[in-house]
Amino acid sequence: MKNIQIRKGKLSDAQKLLEFFKKVGVETDFLMMDENGVGMTLEQEIDHLKQYDNPKSGLYLVATNENGEIVGQSAITQDYPTRKKAEHIYSFGIAILKDYWNQGIASQMMEQLINHAKQIGVGRLDLFVITENARAINLYKKFGFEIEGTLKKCNKVGDTYQDEYIMALIF
After folding, report:
1. Is 72 helix (H, G, I), strand (E, B) or coil?
2. What is the pLDDT of residues 106-116, one digit of tens each?
3. What CATH number is attached to the domain comprising 52?
């Protein structure tokens, strides 16, 4: 992992993140994003990042290269913060630019996120992954995630539908 820094996301990253999402969205069909990125305005992205000011809300990480460009993003987010019975459930997501695949960035981000999850008392960490994305599935399994089910036709690329696995890490 040459000259890559992994750190907490900051409000000042918002514009760079929107640009990152547009770029990563066209590099692979395994993400829900496309050339429009996440479809958020700058203000919406800033508001989204603000939720991570409270460590109990989750953790947002960015990976930057030697030029300060965002090359990866990952987060855990509390799914049901207002529902007492489900406040232990968090979601996980990750995206890395293709030029930075196979450099250990995803593994390092996952280690930090899982450690944070343990520290704040997460009971269940969920993720969704396209069933054909063997590389990501293997990574998630390496960290203890298990496939719990298959969701049909969750993503559509052109005229082709893709199924997703729901995977979970139980603490």
Report:
1. strand
2. 999 999 999 99
3. 3.40.630.30
